[in-house]
Amino acid sequence: xxxxxxxxxxxxxxxxxxxxxxxxxxxxxxxxxxxxxxxxxxxxxxxxxxxxxxxxxxxxxxxxxxxxxxxxxxxxxxxxxxxxxxxxxxxxxxxxxxxxxxxxxxxxxxxxxxxxxxxxxxxxxxxxxxxxxxxxxxxxxxxxxxxxxxxxxxxxxxxxxxxxxxxxxxxxxxxxxxxxxxxxxxxxxxxxxxxxxxxxxxxxxxxxxxxxxxxxxxxxxxxxxxxxxxxxxxxxxxxxxxxxxxxxxxxxxxxxxxxxxxxxxxxxxxxxxxxxxxxxxxxxxxxxxxxxxxxxxxxxxxxxxxxxxxxxxxxxxxxxxxxxxxxxxxxxxxxxxxxxxxxxxxxxxxxxxxxxxxxxxxxxxxxxxxxxxxxxxxxxxxxxxxxxxxxxxxxxxxxxxxxxxxxxxxxxxxxxxxxxxxxxxxxxxxxxxxxxxxxxxxxxxxxxxxxxxxxxxxxxxxxxxxxxxxxxxxxxxxxxxxxxxxxxxxxxxxxxxxxxxxxxxxxxxxxxxxxxxxxxxxxxxxxxxxxxxxxxxxxxxxxxxxxxxxxxxxxxxxxxxxxxxxxxxxxxxxxxxxxxxxxxxxxxxxxxxxxxxxxxxxxxxxxxxxxxxxxxxxxxxxxxxxxxxxxxxxxxxxxxxxxxxxxxxxxxxxxxxxxxxxxxxxxxxxxxxxxxxxxxxxxxxxxxxxxxxxxxxxxxxxxxxxxxxxxxxxxxxxxxxxxxxxxxxxxxxxxxxxxxxxxxxxxxxxxxxxxxxxxxxxxxxxxxxxxxxxxxxxxxxxxxxxxxxxxxxxxxxxxxxxxxxxxxxxxxxxxxxxxxxxxxxxxxxxxxxxxxxxxxxxxxxxxxxxxxxxxxxxxxxxxxxxxxxxxxxxxxxxxxxxxxxxxxxxxxxxxxxxxxxxxxxxxxxxxxxx
Length: 914
Description:
By secondary structure, the protein is an alpha/beta fold. Helices cover 40% and strands 15% of the residues. A hairpin with a 2-residue loop joins strand 26 and strand 27. The chain is globular, with a radius of gyration of 30 Å.
């Protein structure tokens, strides 16, 4: 072994007072990798990674250990060893330099290397391995251990062009011998005799192994878990002061990962559903759908994709969680991810999910709410911090029955690594995006069963990312459960064939024509089956009436004369605000309430809580008279029940979702509203401009053409959806019009598909073993904000924190906030104050966020935010933009007058005439 082997450094403390030898860091990484493989990675994930390496689990583990033992081999170069702790050399730097020189290697200062930044150590590691005949399918994983594999453009003769970075001014053999010793060290740690014994992973295998390597390196690089050593200790005697085994045991104990979920066969008990969803006051009796899903899931040998189509409020959530538990047992997975379309639906599901999680066994499991506003969730806020963990006591009488949110899984890159996650569908869409560290999302999902709810709610652009993610999940053999009440046949076929493609199977053609409903479609290995669910005829008939916009007031007068609760769902925020202004004058602000996306987080939560308490399933204080006006939030986010529904025309699948809020719960209703009535605002000529921009004229026209006088729920759901989305036939009247709007719609769809490809990762190549270099070439930023913007095809909704300045010139939170917070621009706010300030976030109107306007908007807000510099020092407020309004809650953004109202939210006002 080269005499300099023990003298190279891997880590230096920023204060220059401690360091870590390279070989010790590699030993630490190997030790933590062994722990992760044995105690954190699910059996299902181990099996899949091994299959993707075409090797046994033991051989695959050896590959992972080899990668861990050589991931920083690129640091065994003079260009890296010349790096200083700070801008100028410290005593530690000089000591390390001198020690290396005394071992026979010349050391040059960092300024000697003219192109030192052209061979970062991850890239250098790739070249050192390949020089030693290590296949690129392995070396590319080493190049990716900082979150992104090498790009092919950087690989052309880099070692030859920048030879001095690898060998300095020594004889090439000197540094090469040292690098070869580190390679031999890695092979010995993996118990391999030579590189030829290493299995060669496919591209999906490389993705998962790179994610494991990133995690190992992150943990072993944590100075708290793996402390550095004093420079006074000789490198040759380090192991007299460090017990490597005890060092890893200490780190693993400090991490305190909860035990893995092992579902076993507990799902086979006779009263399964009651044991998971019942309580001492309510015995849970599974309905026909839930019983069927349980039976089908139990009978599958190799579960893959399951699509559950059933009406709104039919118990799909419970059925999906039952299937997830069965699939986890059959596939060896140790967690569940439940994806929903919005933050509001995620928040609503979170409490139900924890109730289920608390009942699956008697162990503690970590849980995560994954979206941008998770910190404002009341459950998350109430968590108790214990020894580095937030602890949730869901059932105070249960004692040991707890779920925890582990701090290590905090942060956008690690959130999906927690065992149990509820979050917005963006978390899955981002798995299809070229973004640094995206492999961590893939690994997190590979450990889990994935449930995707309301899958009909995603537009054509988002759907492309969802299809890409589904194909990769199939490559990892991840069971996926998709839920929808109104899933078009074509979209269902796309989900099914994307999954089969990722699995390595050919496309499958479902039976054409009107389908049964409810329906469960599922794969078992290569087989695809459909099972119709026979349910008692307990549906309801909804009468449909078309009205003009001017008739809304008279409809309310006629139907609410005996009281009742009316819901009005419109397609744009501006329209909702205008309607509220009109109707609140007629009925009073105590009767009419408004809900949309342009209220502050504080105001919106208050409004949602009030609606659920008044109109939810178990309420006992339902008002005698209430009119609720809202946008698409009411379509999918809240489990509330209307006696009467008025809705703007929208595509049929979404219209049926809105109708799902009508007579949703069993209750006594006013005589005039005993029958379900839905009034569809549908102009006799043309379509409202905002609606056509959102949904397309074609889908609005098809829906208008297909809308019957009565709808029977659930029987008519599939046929009505297909009448709109079936592209093989068109209405008979005015063929030129239908041809024009159809072609415009298809052009838009194709444009969305093409634009979505720009930053999508490639398809998984399971059968062909290519290196995954350039996998993330042209990546889309490194932040979750940039990622969400890339996977959504709309003007990115910019969020700001709204404050106001009172008569005394003091800046406060909005005056109805409890507690009121005075903002001191020269002082970092306490955590409680910063939390309340952060809850004043609001989405700006679309006009301010369109591509040609958003940069001006950001610059304007940044100028305002400069006046509040100390707020940026709070970790809760860092990077936020602030809008400070005057005492009348008015302001200006880019010459657009804006105003905030507790009843209307944020709105753009007319510009005053000059």
